[in-house]
Amino acid sequence: MRALAFALFGTVVFGLAVWTYIENYKTRSVFDKIEALENRISDKRDELSQLRAEWTSLNRPDRLFDLTKQFMDELRLTDLVAERFGEVGDLPQLNQPNLNQLLAEKSHSGGNKR
């Protein structure tokens, strides 16, 4: 009976050792994947930083002004002058309901309905 108990106990210990070994390697694998993802994130952040610096360089006002002068005829650009814009009074008036009328209608209809 003792031999059976020792054999059973040994089997359980061996099984737990195998399970621990497998879980250890699964955990290491997950940590390796996490490290790879963190490296990719870091690389993408560096790339994004570089792209932002490039965008800032490309959108410098002096550079854009020089490009505008260079390609003005090809793009059919014209100078911005005040005469090209209309007056505020030239805008069509929108039909805006009277606020007092809306409030009166709301109070007659019973206010908040739930």
Question: Which short descriptors sum up this protein?
Answer:
about 110 residues, mainly alpha, 4 helices, single chain
Written account of the structure:
The chain is mainly alpha-helical and 114 residues long. The chain has a domain of 76 residues. The chain is 71% helix and 0% strand. It is built from four helices and no strands. The longest helix is centred in the first third of the chain and has 57 residues.
Any chance you could write out the topology, listing elements then pairs?
Blueprint: H1 2-58, H2 61-70, H3 72-75, H4 99-108
Order of helices and strands: HHHH
Summed over residues and divided by their number, the pLDDT gives a mean of 87
Overall radius of gyration: 37 Å
- What is the count of DSSP helices, taking H or I runs of 4+ residues? 4
Low-confidence stretches: none
Helix content: over 70%
Largest sheet: none
Shape, please?
A: elongated
Look at the helices and sheets and give the structural class. mainly alpha
Q: Percent of residues in beta strands?
A: under 5%
Task: Give the structure's gist in a few sentences.
The chain is mostly helical. It has 4 helices and no strands. It has a domain at 2-77.
